Amino acid sequence: MPNVIPTKGNLMSIKRSLTLAKMGYELMDRKRNILINEIMSLIERAGELQGRIDSTFKEAYADLQKANITLGIPGDVARMVPLDDSVSFRFRSIMGVEIPLVSASDEPPDLTYGFVFTNSALDSATISFNKVKQLTAELAELETTIYRLAFAIKKTQKRANALENIIIVNFNRDIKFITEALEEKEREEFVRLKVIKARS
């Protein structure tokens, strides 16, 4: 039995709350659908990007292997390469979900080593690994976005389910209880008035 006092004021209040709960459910449902559409397009892109990274890695390691074969392991050259800090982060929002924007410089790398003791295989390896860096930054952004969207979809689904299966159901039950109780009071009042009229 609902724990609510059957008055017209309570009935009106619960009907208003029910309307708001239904609107909230519709908004949650729309948000969930938008997030699902967004995540589906990203998953497709992530698969394609993963393939590009794999082929670029193979190319980069093949170039590095050629450089190692022709130059020996270029440890001295590796120490001459400066630290790369060209990866940057920003954030944007999709339906209240904070999504990272990762960008890596797409400029060709500066070849900081001398040309006397190196060859074109090392240059190719450097350029290929720079491409790998850019693609990896893009994939990191996509995978983080997919993860955050999936978490937001799960959270939105839980809230929508709570609204649909608990809150709206409880409001409907309370409305039915109050309506029946008020109708019963009206019938009793009607019968009482009839009895009083019959006696007079």
What features would you describe in this structure?
The protein has 200 residues and is mainly alpha-helical. It has a single domain (8-199), classed as Orthogonal Bundle (Helix Hairpins), CATH 1.10.287. Helix content is 75%, strand content 7%. It has three helices and two strands. It has a two-stranded antiparallel sheet with strand order 1-2. Helix 1 (8-71) packs antiparallel against helix 3. The radius of gyration is 33 Å and the shape is rod-shaped. The two termini are 39 Å apart. 12% of the residues are buried. The mean pLDDT is 85.
Write the layout of secondary structure elements.
Elements: H1 8-71, H2 75-80, E1 88-94, E2 97-103, H3 120-199
Antiparallel strand pairs: 1-2
Outline of this structure?
By secondary structure, the protein is mainly alpha-helical. It is built from 3 helices and 2 strands.
Mean pLDDT rating: 85
CATH third-tier fold name: Helix Hairpins
Describe the global form. rod-shaped
User: Which spans have pLDDT < 50 for at least 5 consecutive residues?
Assistant: none
SS content category: mainly alpha
Q: Helices and strands, in N-to-C order?
A: HHEEH
Radius of gyration: 33 Å
Percent of sequence in beta strands: 5-15%
Strand order of the largest sheet: 1-2
Biggest beta-sheet profile? 2 strands, antiparallel
Query: What CATH architecture would you give?
Result: Orthogonal Bundle
Number of helical elements: 3
CA distance, first residue to last residue: 39 Å
